Amino acid sequence: MDGIGSETASAAAPLSQWQHDVSRLYQYYLDKTTPHAVYRWIGTLFVLAIYALRVFYVQGFYIVSYGLGIYILNLLIGFLSPLVDPEMEVSDGPLLPTKGSDEFKPFIRRLPEFKFWYSFTKAFCTAFVMTFFSIFDVPVFWPILLCYWIVLFVLTMRRQIAHMIKYKYIPFSLGKQKYGGKKASASSGISNDD
């Protein structure tokens, strides 16, 4: 009895080690892509284009595309939302300023950009693989799904924009602000003397 159990354990050990090595190698390359946001998104747009061409070519899998659209909308809401929603909870952590006298605190996303990109890309890869299995090709009238998704998108974004306006935050950073410096003050000083 002891011999049988040890044989299966020793047979499973190399498989487990190989799985661990592959996982570490995958994580290594994933970590190396972190600072290259533009190239990551270009690759994702390439994956998106391949998926769109596949769906267009086979003229099907609209329910997969609809589910993908709902998932992407959910990711987008997480990407545009603050980590701590001032409407839902009061905490001692970083909060968004609500008055001009409040201290400035940077916008911290509920879903960081890297995780947004990673989930976005995985979703398109998964949907692409699903297009090779006919079980997922449920016949539907796609214009209805498209209209319904557009309505969901508009209603969701209207609510999100109203939340942004109410709590005065912008989920995008356009970089460090640049001020005119001496040139702007010198030119305004000259015009005041005239």
Helix-strand string: HHHHHH
Give the termini distance in whole angstroms: 103 Å
Strands, total number:
0
Radius of gyration: 25 Å
Q: Strand fraction band?
A: under 5%
Biggest sheet character: none
pLDDT averaged over residues: 82
Uncertain stretches: none
Proportion of residues in helical segments? 55-70%
- The structural class is mainly alpha
User: Count of helices?
Assistant: 6
Shape: extended
Subcellular location: Membrane
GO biological process, one term: protein retention in ER lumen
Organism: Cucurbita maxima (Pumpkin)
Protein name: Protein RER1
What features would you describe in this structure?
This protein is mostly helical and 194 residues long. It has a domain at 58-172. Helices cover 66% and strands 0% of the residues. It has six helices and no strands. It has helices spanning 2-32, 37-58, 62-80, 113-130, 142-167, 182-193. It is extended, with a radius of gyration of 25 Å. InterPro entries: Rer1. The chain crosses the membrane at residues 38-57, 63-84, 141-158. It is found in: Membrane. Belongs to the RER1 family.
